[in-house]
């Protein structure tokens, strides 16, 4: 079983490792290299683990007619879809520059390979892991070839069924043990009723030997925090410098203050998950000492009496005595000295009392 593995050098995911936070810059850089660098610096300052982009070799991702079709959206950067995508697509040299900048900034850098040739380029860059976007998750030839590269993989599952995801698991698992699957719904922005966080639990049950995560397109951070509380070991959120910028992804993206708050909240949740062992904690002793209740005499009890429940009550008492959960164990015990009404029942009040009787 490989429930935990190294996603990036020195950074493992799964098991009890901290949640790995991917800031998806995607193409929210507006096609401007300096803006992209600002975003890399921003996500580092906000505490994310990785700055991620999207890399396409357009002639391999789209056919000619798709690139030539008119694109009249308010979000368009050109008259055709091809012109639009070319405006947003960085060159190989620009990617190398961004990778160098990310290294200098001290944050992991990778991209979604949006086609097979893009994957080949990302391998040349030696990115630490390969992200498979939802649009390629059911592209089984692409998926198998990518898995065979031997690089760790993060696979989103938007637009897919559980049957498809089971096939994805089988295809990748056969050749690559280091991958995780993210619950994802491909809508921008995503409405809460379409998030389906329970799929995280379904994936954990269906694929118990890989980490499960969450890729969100909703507004705000509450749902992503809930995903971490449900066990997501990787989270991915789109980020932007300004939600009002041109581009369909900006509305579903987090601005810097939101990203910083998300990272902070995730780290708080991880601390709060704590231990599955329920016990009295040192931080609770003050409250117990002040408000914890004890067994007291409901009536005056003469020496030699045998205790019955109708002689006993439970109150906040001074001094402390037997805790309430032991009241039934006191039945039948003989009292060796007079106890006044409302007085605490203590160990030295019980004839032949032994701590063994409490076991």
Structure commentary:
The protein has 359 residues and is α/β, with parallel strands linked by helices. The protein folds into 2 domains: 7-273, TIM Barrel (Alpha-Beta Barrel), CATH 3.20.20; 282-349, Antifreeze-like/N-acetylneuraminic acid synthase C-terminal domain (Type Iii Antifreeze Protein Isoform Hplc 12), CATH 3.90.1210. It is 33% helix and 16% strand. It contains 12 helices and 12 strands. An 8-stranded parallel beta sheet has the order 5-4-3-10-9-8-7-6. The chain has a two-stranded antiparallel ribbon with strand order 1-2. Strands 11-12 form a two-stranded antiparallel sheet. Strand 6, helix 7 (140-148) and strand 7 (153-156) form a beta-alpha-beta unit. The mean pLDDT is 96.
**Secondary structure tally: strands:** 12
Helix and strand pattern: EEEHEHHHHEHEHEHEHEHEHHEE
Continuous helix count: 12
Query: Based on CA inertia axes, which overall geometry fits?
Result: elongated
How would you describe the oligomerization state of the chains in this entry? single chain
Overall tally of domains: 2
Query: Order of strands across the biggest sheet?
Result: 5-4-3-10-9-8-7-6
Q: What percentage of the residues does DSSP assign to strands (E)?
A: 15-25%
CATH fold type of the largest domain: TIM Barrel
Assigned CATH class of the largest domain: Alpha Beta
Biggest pleated sheet: 8 strands, parallel
CATH 2nd-level architecture of the largest domain: Alpha-Beta Barrel
Which stretches are low in confidence, meaning pLDDT under 50 for 5 or more residues running? none
Q: What class do helices, strands and sheet pairing give?
A: alpha/beta
Overall mean pLDDT stands at 96
What is the distance, rounded to the nearest whole angstrom, between the alpha carbons of the first and last residues? 40 Å
**CA gyration radius, whole angstroms:** 30 Å
């Amino acid at each position: 079983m490989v429930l935990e593995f190294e996603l990036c050098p020195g950074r493992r995911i799964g098991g009890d490792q901290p949640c790995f936070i991917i800031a998806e810059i995607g193409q929210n850089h507006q096609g401007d290299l300096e803006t992209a660098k600002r975003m890399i610096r921003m996500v580092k300052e906000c505490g994310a683990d990785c700055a991620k982009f999207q890399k396409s070799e357009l002639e391999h991702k789209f056919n000619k007619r798709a690139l030539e079709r008119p694109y009249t959206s308010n979000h368009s950067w050109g008259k055709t879809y091809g012109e639009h995508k070319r405006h947003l697509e960085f060159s190989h040299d620009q990617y190398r520059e961004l990778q160098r900048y990310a290294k200098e900034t001290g944050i992991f850098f990778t991209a979604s390979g949006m086609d097979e040739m893009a994957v080949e380029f990302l391998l040349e860059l030696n990115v630490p892991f390969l992200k498979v976007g939802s649009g390629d998750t059911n592209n089984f030839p692409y998926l198998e070839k990518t898995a065979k590269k031997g690089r760790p993989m993060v696979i989103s599952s938007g637009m897919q069924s559980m049957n498809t995801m089971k096939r994805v698991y089988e295809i990748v698992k056969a050749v690559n043990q280091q991958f995780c699957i993210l619950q994802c719904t491909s809508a921008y922005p995503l409405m809460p009723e379409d998030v389906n966080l329970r799929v995280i639990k379904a994936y954990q049950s269906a694929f118990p030997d890989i980490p499960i995560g969450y890729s969100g397109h909703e507004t705000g951070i509450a749902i992503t925090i809930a995903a971490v509380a449900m066990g997501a070991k990787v989270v991915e959120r789109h980020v932007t410098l300004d939600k009002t910028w041109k581009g369909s992804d900006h509305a579903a993206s987090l601005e810097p203050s939101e990203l910083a708050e998300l990272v902070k909240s995730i780290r708080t949740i991880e601390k709060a998950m704590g231990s599955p062992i329920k016990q009295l904690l040192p931080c609770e002793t003050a409250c117990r000492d002040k408000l914890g209740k004890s067994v007291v005499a409901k009536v005056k009890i003469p020496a030699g009496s045998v205790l019955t429940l109708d002689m006993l009550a439970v109150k906040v008492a001074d001094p402390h005595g037997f805790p309430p959960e032991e009241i039934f164990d006191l039945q039948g015990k003989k009292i060796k000295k007079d106890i006044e009404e409302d007085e605490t029942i203590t160990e030295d009040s019980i004839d032949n009392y032994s701590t063994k009787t409490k076991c």
